[in-house]
Amino acid sequence: MNKQEDRRTAIAERLADHILQHGLIASSLRPLAQAAGTSDRMLLYYFEDKAEIIAVALQAVAGRMAGLMAAAVASEPLPYDQLLPKLAVLLSDEGFWPYMRIWLEIASRAAGGDPFYAKVGEEIGRGFLAWGRAQLKAEDDEALDRDAARLLLAIEGGVLLKSIGLGDVAAKAIN
After folding, report:
1. Are 18 and 35 in contact (CB under 8 A)?
2. Could you tell me the pLDDT band of residue 89, with boundaries at 50, 70 and 90?
3. What is the pTM for the complete model shown?
4. Under a CB-based contact definition with an 8 Å cutoff, are residues 100 and 155 in contact?
5. 25: which of 8, 53, 74, 146 is 20 to 30 A away, CA to CA?
6. How far apart are CA 48 and CA 111, in angstroms?
7. 15 within 8 A of 57, measured Cβ to Cβ
8. Which of 119, 108, 128, 89 has the alpha carbon at shortest distance from 23?
9. 68 near 99, Cβ under 8 Å?
């Protein structure tokens, strides 16, 4: 990596910290620049525009989230009915909730018709499907695809229910 790429990576990590703490609602350029320890002009020197800034920060958030998820599951693929409860434990962890809160913000903005967040949400969702597929043990590719989709659906439903105060209902369904 060159010096500019190192700086971009360091800025992206600080932006990820800011977004995890404050959410996307606090993602106007000045607060992002302040969180990155630079000016808004310098932030735009390192990144093409605000969309790239948000995209890079969300990639850093997604990378951290993937690491937490990987640490929560077994080292070898598991059947769907064994993997789902392991992920449900992670979802109930308050340290993981900021990631889910950001995911809900992305989904909300996508549902509101924002094409940027629809694209970002689809990329993250497809990434989760691929991650789930790699974690699952099934008899064939068709079953892997089905179980990865079921896993995404169950987790997303659990996140939504928890966000509206029905975490206990989600826990009953998932465990």
Report:
1. yes
2. confident
3. 0.89
4. no
5. 8
6. 26
7. yes
8. 108
9. yes
Note the CATH number of domain 1-65. 1.10.10
132 by Cβ neighbours in 10 Å (0-12 / 13-18 / 19+) ranks as: buried
Hey, CA dihedral for 20, 150, 124, 72, is it positive or negative? Answer: positive
- Cα 62 to its chain centre, rounded Å, is 4
**Which residue type occupies 12?**
A
Whole-Å CA distances, 164 to 29, 68, 99, 161, 169: 30, 23, 16, 5, 11
Mean pLDDT of 25-54: 92
C-beta neighbour count of 74 within 10 angstroms = 11
Domain boundaries for CATH 1.10.10 within the chain: 1-65
